[in-house]
Amino acid sequence: MNTTQTASSAALEERFGRQVAARLTAGNGELSHEVGERLRAARVQAVARRKVAQQLRPAPVVLSRGGTAVLGGSWWTRIGSVIPLVALVAGLVAISVMQEDNRTNELAAIDSALLTDDLPPAAYTDPGFAQFLKTSDDSSER
């Protein structure tokens, strides 16, 4: 968002606020004194809250010459904003390496079990053997 868009939206908000205030003030003469005083007190509180909210706004993001967003200008701020990103990337790489290692270990365990078994590996691909295993599992459950 550039500064002209920010300025125009701020001007629109200001104009809308003034129109609402004028409308409320115009209808103020028809109200009783007690209601008018309560409305005036509410307006004062609203204005006070708005001033506090404006003071608590975060620092604006500044675009540097390179086009990167910086929350200040010091090197410490830039380094502090990059450290979490580096930690995230390092964590993702570590997780990927661990998962690949686990997958390799699982495949090695399966291969060693197949190769050290009494049956030849070709028996596992035989459809008749698969049927034999299903029927033997069904009979053992009874």
From TrEMBL:
Keywords from UniProt, A to Z, are: Membrane, Transmembrane, Transmembrane helix
Q: Which organism is it from?
A: Variovorax ureilyticus
Domain of life of the organism encoding this protein = Bacteria
The protein's name:
DUF3619 family protein
Q: Pfam families attached here? A: DUF3619
Carries keyword Membrane? yes
Which InterPro entries does the record associate with it? DUF3619
Q: Where are the transmembrane segments?
A: 75-97
